[in-house]
Write the C-alpha cells for this entry.
Amino acid sequence: MILSMPGQAWLFVATVGTGAAAGVFYDFFRVLRRAWRHPRWLVHIEDLLFWLVATVLIFYYLLHRNSGEIRPFMLVGMVTGAVLYFATLSRWVVKITVTVVKFVEKVIRAMVRIILLPLRLVLAFTAPHAKKAAHKSNQYLRRVQRYGRIKWHKVKRNRQIMRKKV
C-alpha cells in the first residue's frame, strides 16, 4: 500500500502514541510491583504477560492501520514514543498512581474494620466464655475417654474368662 507523505507523517505520530501507550501499559505492572511485594517468579510471569499482550496489540494495530506492512519509521516511532514517555511522564505517573493505590487500600482496610467492628465486639465478649466452655468440654471428653477405656478392659477381661470356661 502506498502512503502519501502526510499519511506517513500521521502514521509516524500514531506509532509514537502507540509506543507511549505501551509504556503506560508497562507502568501498570510497575505500580503493582511497588504497591505490593511480588516474588521474583511472579515478576517474570508479569513481564512475559506484558510482552505477549503488547506484541499482540501492536501487531493488531499495525495490521489494521497499515495492512500489516512494517516500515522502519514505524518501529522508530514506537521506540521514540516509549523513550519519550519513560523520560518525561513515567516517573510522575508511577508515583501518583502508587500513592492513590495505597490510599485506596488504606480506605478499604478502614471500611472493613468498621464493618467488622460489631463482630469483633461480640467475639470479645463471648471469647472468654467460649474458652471456658471449650475447657469444660475437653474435661468431659477426657472423662468419656477414660470411661471407655475402663469399659473396654472389662469387656476384654470378660472375653478371656469366657474362653477359659469353654
Q: What stands out?
A: The two ends are 107 Å apart (CA to CA).
